[in-house]
Write a structure and sequence with these properties.
By secondary structure, the protein is α+β, with helices and mostly antiparallel strands. It contains 42 helices and 30 strands. Its cofactor is Fe(2+).
Amino acid sequence: DEFVPPPECPVFEPSWEEFADPLGYIAKIRPIAEKSGICKIRPPADWQPPFAVEVDNFRFTPRIQRLNELEAETRVKLNYLDRIAKFWEIQGSSLKIPNIERRIVDLFSLAKVVSEEGGFETVCKERRWARVAQKLGYPPGKNIGSLLRSHYERIVYPFEMFQSGTSLPYKPRPYDSEEVDKEYKPHSIPLRQSVQPSKMSSYGRRANRLQPDPEPTEEDIEKNPELKKLQIYGAGPKMMGLGLVARDKGVKKKDSITKEEDFDEEDSDGIGKNEPCTKMTMRLRRYPSNMQFVDSFVCRMCGRGDEDEKLLLCDGCDDNYHTFCLLPPLTDPPKGDWRCPKSVFIQMECKRPAEAFGFEQATREYTLQSFGEMADTFKADYFNMPVHMVPTELVEREFWRLVSSIEEDVTVEYGADIHSKEFGSGFPMNDGKKQLTPEEEEYARSGWNLNVMPVLEQSVLCHINGDISGMKVPWLYVGMVFSTFCWHIEDHWSYSINYLHWGEPKTWYGVPSSAAEHLEEVMKKLTPELFESQPDLLHQLVTIMNPNILMAHGVPVVRTNQCAGEFVITFPRAYHSGFNQGYNFAEAVNFCTADWLPVGRSCIEHYRRLRRYCVFSHEELTCKMAACPEKLDLNLAAATHREMFSIVQEERKLRKGLLERGITEAEREAFELLPDDERQCDKCKTTCFLSALACTNCTERLVCLYHTQDLCACPTEKHYLRYRYTLDELLAMLHRLKVRAESFDSWANRVKEALEQEEGTKIGIQELEALKEEATERKFPNNELLQRLNGVLSDIEHCQTTSKELLANSQSRRMTLVELKDLVERMQNLPCVLSQLADVQAVLDTVEKFQAKAEALLGSGQDSQGSPPPEQLQALLEEGAALAAEASALDLLRGLQEQGRWLSEVRRTLGPRGGDSSVTLGVLRGLMEAGCSVPQSAAVETAMAELQELLTIAERWEEKAQICLEHRQKHPLSTLEAIVTEAQLIPVQLPNILSLQSCLGRARAWVTDLEEIQNGEHYPCLDDLEGLVAVGRDLPVLMEELRQLELQVASAHSWREKASKTFLKKNSPYSLLEVLCPCVEMCRGAGKGVKTDTDSLGLSAQDLRDPGAIVSAFKEGERREKEAARRLQKLNLAKPGLDTCKEERRRAGDVEQDVSMSSKNREGASEPSSVTPYLDNGASVCVCGRPPLTPLLRCHLCKDWFHGGCVPFPSLLPPGQTVSEGTLCWWDWDTHFLCPLCQRSRRPRLETILALLVALQRLPVRLPEGEALQCLTERAIGWQGRAKEALESPELKGALETLQIL
């Protein structure tokens, strides 16, 4: 099932004031937080201690954690599988776990369910295998019950029979698993967890504690073959420093007896011999003279001694068994040592480790950087995404899935319990090793510094001498994803605090102390196999259980994610566990407050029952605090007195029991000077301090007074009491504690009497201050009574200061009547008399009289349904302003005054003279807003209604005008005039109406201009119409004339575009008018080769509107064009060097080209062409203005030369004819070349131009281009007429006839 997160634990965010007292704040939140067992504290945002660890020098060796070995139920299953695997391995087979429905069979659950159903025989007899399959979670049908029976009978049943010591009722089939089954690799969890901590460490939590038996050496393992076998099988090292290899000892057969020399038992494995040695050989050599041993070699199962080749000798008990008599039978004799089922059972029960200390250490040492790189790589690879993008919920679900999986073995490493005294704390410390900055000094002194919190004045642990690592000295924790801390409670059930310095979150689970025993019961109930061999399993920090399982059995569990910079507090006897979400660094320590003392005593009693070692002596700690009561905090002194009283009473009862037994000898002993292991009870391991029972004969033994019967068997006369204090000394210590605790009671009674004084018996201020000074000197706790005393003194100081300011009229803000009454009442309720009380009372009486007068005036105004006269209001206001305090009626008077002023302003605005231009919408809205703040009355409501009505009407007309101005839908001129006329009746200045009125004036002027243009002598010009269209489009008025004008302008533009396409070349730099007009000036530009012409016939914009002026200008331009052309031709023909090549040019047909020049450089030709002569370098030709270079082309019109690479090469074919139509003779070539400066446009046919003129005549618009086209057409027609006359002359006709004859 998918993991369901438990509810969140309480989270607290203290203020800076609360954060200043750590233990006080923890005591404040304890009633809420201890109900959950754990809580989280977020410090103020600015509290960020610097990380003080020297990262470069920090090196540590982490622990190895295999996740599925941590969970209790999973570990039970793995241990069970280990035992089955061990059983089959000794029998010569390996365990392979079968699969059903794509998941491996849970053999432990299968065996458990079969046992619950009555056993294998019962289940088979009553055919309950289908029910077994259903209980294991398999779907019904599919014959799964038969498969489970087969696997149980084949794998589990022989092992169960072996454990019970009975024989199978039939001969079982050999264990031969399928190939698809997964081979099981034993974990050997108990043996691996028996690895002890390093003996070199000097920071153990208990000093000189009794150590368990040392771990086996290699010599011990050589002498114990079964221990060696446990070293060989299973994944990973099972014991530190051992890496042994199994030795093949050959087959043990009875017929392999040989006669050899005697040798020691250690060399009996035959290494270096030519023939293997069997156990039978060893038996003969061990007893060479006793032949009865040979005759007694018979099978323990069948009692026969035949078939010697199949008779095996057990290495454990020396009994003999036939291979076919074993359960199950062996097909082949096993190699190496072999033990019979009886010996295997004894060994499996006896060799189990007595105590598990924790996880084995890794073999690699890390730095913080190398461990972080390993941790981040592992997490990124496991989840296949960047580490910071993995959700915490996903990690949590995956963690609980892994710990419950038998088949997935995921191993992580955890740098846990690293001693900060050796490696350095993450918090700054004032240890003199490093110079601290002022900021570091502040954090080094902070009570939230984990090095400081255990030794605070209110902490119990500050009275313990020496450093207890992990309790008084913090431990460091470097985690990676999935690294785990298992279910546990703190030593001595103390508090703990954990701070996450940096890194990814740490997930916590907590159980309150009220449910601690319930949790233990649930875990023992669900996994009794673990607690049978290890009753204190939960104290070893190696076992977890899924919170969902605990919650299902009624255990309340909470969770939280501890982020960097946050604290987690665990309360006494609160079980907690968790895991890390990724790479992080945390620090933790224990602390104990006064409320912990009775809990600590209960913990010692619990340890006594479990025979668990103590970290320190609870009695010693209590007595040490009782010895110096004056140094104790009062709360701690009171708690110590109660604790000491219980201890003394119990000690008195125990010593009385010794006297009744007749033990009268006693000896004082300074137990605190003895090492812990020399003063521990031999029975319960409790550290003795107040007393212990010893024996003069058995000097090595010592017991506490709870186990006097378990000391020794010596006579009672030999026993004597070793004590630290006599009962009288203990009573004296108790009395001193009582005096210290009761000193507060005496002071408290005097404070109560002083604070409860009535009128006439009040004391002086000096007596109250003396009580406060006494509390400070004696360090009384800041309890409710002291807080009350401080509050009274603060009230006295406040009343004195306020009274002086009131009487001196030096207040920054005038006191109200309510505040003045409260001040007088507080002064009267004080337990002492203040001298200013009478004067303050007089001020109060004066203010109350003014209040009564003002209320009377206000009441009379309401009765008369009108406002009081302004003169009376002003007089009262002036009187109230002179008072020392502010009467509440002053606000009402000011409100009435403001109301009168507002009504006057409204009347002036709405009056007959209010409709001038000064009344705007802003004025009306301002009056409305001001009316809401004045006191309400009938007159105000009436005026507000009138203002609202006028404002609503004005805004409605403004909205209408705005709609008309937005051009969304234009309205006729008459409609807009009606709107403006009606809106002018409103006595408010409306901006949109004014804008609409202005638009109407411009529309009327537009219509007048249009009529003037249309009624003129000639058609209107296009420019005039375009200007009218632009103006008309901007007006929010619907005008029919505008649509007509737009159509006319569009037609004119269409005609101009058609004419432009007819005349203009593609990407032509000339406009249509420039092309149609004569080119008046024909000359070469200076250095640019660009010819210029007039823009618009040399006329102004006004002259262009006169057709006659245009025709005259065109005629004049035509004349000037001819003259300019002649001058240009004459200039170009007169260029030096050109006359010498006329004949050659004439013979070449006026085409200057040479095919052979295609392979020459056009810019650097040095030899003249055979067709084109070399020209003088002094002349400049072409559009580029450079000297002439072949090949050259001559313009037919301007007679100028052009480079062949600068101008387009002329086509030799007539227009419209292609080369494919036939080759022409040279005399049919079109050899006339026009340069780009002479041919500025296309040369359309005359018929095309006449069609344009016909379309022009239909336009009601005049265009300058149209006038120019008409003139150009007339010029072309005139030339055509003259050409016809020339062709019809007699001379030309005769010449043509002569040519035809030729």
